[in-house]
Design goal:
heterodimer, A: mainly alpha, two-stranded antiparallel ribbon, 1% strand, B: 224 residues, alpha+beta, six-stranded mixed β-sheet, three-stranded antiparallel β-sheet, 21% helix
Chain lengths: 513, 224
């Protein structure tokens, strides 16, 4: 191991890619933990703004003369903007880096939140909710950023905390917005119909400021920003068509897109309908129903990170197969609890089952993104975008099928949705990595079943000659931990080394490979 | 002519029977059980211009503006009822602004439910005052429509409550089907020029800061 005096010093232990191998949540050291805090806070602010309308609906619906149908349509609109935006954000992250992608998205959607001050009709309300909802696509650059900063053994944890603390905004907004509204109404003395418009400016300012913070204090990768790295030749500039093609070609991305729709998508749907469910079924006060609804979103602060941590824990012992099995078990369990939620008849039992359901559903989101960073290295952004988009699509579909109009009562809708979750989680059994195996099959025993082969298959020989694949090589080596404990001991070591780099999975502070 | 004590006894019995009709064992008061013993008239004019409206729909000729315009509301015990009707049980009158059916369509939060405790038809309190017995004079109030009244169609209803706070009778400015004498109120938009300008400035700043950042990055990258 040579020490190069030009290697940058990092506050956290890093691997050969300079990605952190530890996750220290209370540190804000550059670049890893600082990136984490910038990322989760910006994602949190997107949830604040997207769902800010929900707790203030009793006032907005009278001001804008909305109907129940109109409110339902606006709710669907608020989650549908992100479906395609997430795929676009994935591509942009791959090409321009998560920092620029994220900040651009936030700064361009913030005006939609500010302009709620001028909303004057049901149509303008729907249109603005649609535009604001596009900001939820920020999920993709956030998790791309975490996958760029954190090494495979801790990537699930980093993704889980960033995603969970962001999603937590959906619950926090149910408490923050009424509070802000109350202060404006009573302390500033504004009329009801003006106070809510002023209240909307607050989360919008948060979103804007977090974007500016990302631009000023963040960097794309441990070694610097995309732009500078590309100019100095350390990072090759990739072509959109290739990145996109390798992303959509990978069947694992499509399967995970489907299953993510039945944990994250279901979570968004429940965010939108659960307050009304408790209010109507159990005749609770609107305020109480709102607090219970908030609890569902607030659980994210622990449940999604738990999923991520669990994924990393299982990977240590059982590798990728452990990650996949845990994901399947937890998400299916979530479906079971959803079925039960639709059937219980008492408030206390309902709240209990809802909490169990939220823990499983949100952990499944964290577990999913323990698997995603490994699906592709070259097209990580596109894959993350597809899966994230699948999540949003799941929210749109479940709301359309089960909760629009009065075809099903809300409790029947919940039960049927639970059955659909169980069915749509089964495709996870089809995911297979040649180097690590799948849920039902062991890894390939022939020589083509290596990490290098898997990630190298994304590059042509021409590109390899130019050295474009170097980052993938490093990642392949670092991801060997996905074999799990027993496997890495029994499998014959691989001799395929395309470049002269030696393997270094070291936890020393100065790394040069 | 019956003696005074007999009249008192009769009224007491009637009062008690009214109570028994209007609430069940749980104390739940159903709207359908309340007698319509009060007549009400609503108009934007002063009481001396009040005319008893004919059956058939009419409007005020233009919408009333919340926060600006006034309603003149008048009520009294219905004189055309038989002598058996008595208002001796009425202690308080509460006058409320209520949503007309057209404004309740597809809006579950304004639903009419027979159980008065859950009924959401009348959401705005206009006036509460003690009830004056034995008078055939019209009582009236001039009410400025409050700022928080949203744009919708309305009518006015008065509930009479007994000493225990239980509703015992009502009257309204429209018929049982609520299909005439419905007036419209135009609520405030809640928008303000200052707020519009502030939000436009914030939005412009948001977009311009992104543009500015790109420009700075490009000029910084050039010298390399």
């Amino acid at each position: 191991m040579e020490y190069d005096s030009q290697s940058p010093k990092f506050a956290l232990p890093v691997d050969s890619d300079h990605k952190a191998t530890e996750f220290r949540i209370f540190s804000i050291d550059k670049p890893h933990m600082r990136a984490f805090h910038l990322a989760w806070f910006s994602y949190f602010s997107c949830f604040l703004t997207t769902f800010a309308a929900a707790p203030l609906l009793p006032i907005i619906r009278d001001n804008l003369n909305l109907t129940t149908t109109g409110i339902g349509k606006a709710g669907i609109a608020s989650v549908s903007g992100a479906v395609f935006a997430r795929i676009a954000m994935g591509t942009l992250s791959d090409l321009f880096g998560p920092r620029l992608a994220s900040a651009s998205l936030l700064l361009l959607t913030a005006p939609a939140v500010f302009l709620f001050s001028m909303a004057s009709s049901p149509f303008s309300f729907l249109f603005l909710r649609f535009c604001v909802g596009i900001s939820l696509a920020n999920f993709v650059p956030t998790l791309f950023w975490m996958s760029s900063m954190f090494s495979p053994p801790v990537v699930g944890t980093a993704n889980g905390f960033a995603g969970g603390w962001g999603n937590f905004g959906g619950g926090a907004t149910q408490l923050i917005m009424p509070l802000v509204f109350g202060i404006i109404q009573h302390n500033v003395g504004a009329a009801k119909f003006t106070a809510w418009r002023i209240a909307f400016q607050i989360p919008a300012v948060f979103q804007m400021l977090s974007a500016i913070a990302i631009l000023l204090f963040g960097q794309d990768m441990p070694d610097g920003n995309f732009h500078r790295l590309e100019k100095s030749g350390d990072k090759p500039k990739d072509k959109f068509s290739n990145v996109f093609w390798h992303g959509v070609k990978n069947y694992r991305g499509w399967i995970l897109a489907l299953t993510y729709g039945y944990c994250f998508g279901v979570e968004l749907t429940v965010d939108n309908i659960i307050a009304e469910y408790f209010y109507d079924r159990f005749n609770l006060k609107l305020h109480t129903a709102g607090m219970i609804a908030a609890t569902f979103g607030l659980a994210n602060i622990v449940s999604r990170p738990t999923g991520g941590v669990l994924s990393d824990l299982m990977a240590r012992r059982f590798g990728m197969r452990g990650r996949l099995w845990t994901l399947w078990v937890v998400q299916t369990l979530g479906g079971v609890f959803c079925v039960i939620l639709g059937r219980v008849g008492s408030v206390k039992a309902s709240i209990g089952v809802m909490i169990l359901f939220s823990l499983c559903c949100q952990s499944a989101c964290g577990l999913t993104f323990g698997v995603v960073p490994f699906v592709s290295r070259r097209s990580l952004g596109v894959i993350s975008g597809m899966i994230g988009g699948g999540g949003s699509l799941g929210a749109v579909m479940t709301q359309l099928i089960f909760f629009k109009g009065s075809e099903y009562s809300k409790e029947t809708g919940l039960t049927l949705m639970g059955v659909m979750i169980i069915c749509c989680t089964l495709p996870l059994t089809l995911i297979y990595f040649p180097q690590w195996g799948g849920m039902l099959s062991a890894p390939s025993s022939i020589n083509t079943g290596t990490e290098e082969e898997y990630y190298m298959s994304e590059w042509t020989s021409v590109e390899k000659e130019k050295g474009f694949h170097r980052a993938s090589v490093k990642f392949a080596e670092n991801s060997r931990s996905e074999r799990g404990k027993s496997d890495s001991l029994t499998r014959t070591s691989d001799d395929i080394r395309p470049t002269g780099n030696s393997t270094c999975l070291s936890s020393l502070y100065y790394i040069n490979c | 002519m019956a003696s005074r004590s007999e009249i008192v006894l009769a009224s007491l019995l009637l009062f008690l029977s009214c109570l028994a009709e209007t609430s069940d064992a749980n104390g739940v008061v159903l709207f359908s059980s309340l007698p319509n013993t009060l007549e009400m008239i609503v108009s934007p004019h002063k009481p001396e211009q009040v005319m008893k409206p004919a059956e058939g729909s009419w409007t005020f000729g233009g919408t009333l503006k919340a926060g600006e315009d006034k309603l003149s509301i008048s009520w009294r015990l219905n004189q055309s009822f038989s002598a058996g009707t008595t208002d001796s049980g009425y202690k308080t009158i509460k006058v409320k602004l209520c949503y007309a059916p057209v404004s309740q369509v597809d809006r579950g939060w304004r639903k009419t439910v027979d159980n008065l405790a859950k009924d959401k038809t009348c959401q705005f309190k206009i006036e509460t005052r003690p009830y004056k017995h034995g008078s055939s004079k019209w009582k009236y109030i001039d009410w400025t429509i409050k700022h928080d009244v949203p744009s919708a169609s309305y009518f006015v209803r008065a509930y009479a409550y007994d000493g225990a706070g239980v509703a015992v009778a009502y009257g309204q400015s429209t018929g049982p089907k609520k299909n005439y004498n419905i007036f419209e109120v135009q609520g405030i938009t809640g928008r303000h020029k200052t707020l519009d300008v502030v939000s436009i400035c914030f939005s412009a700043f948001s977009v311009l800061s992104l543009v500015g950042f790109f420009v700075v990055e490009k000029t910084r990258a050039k010298p390399t």
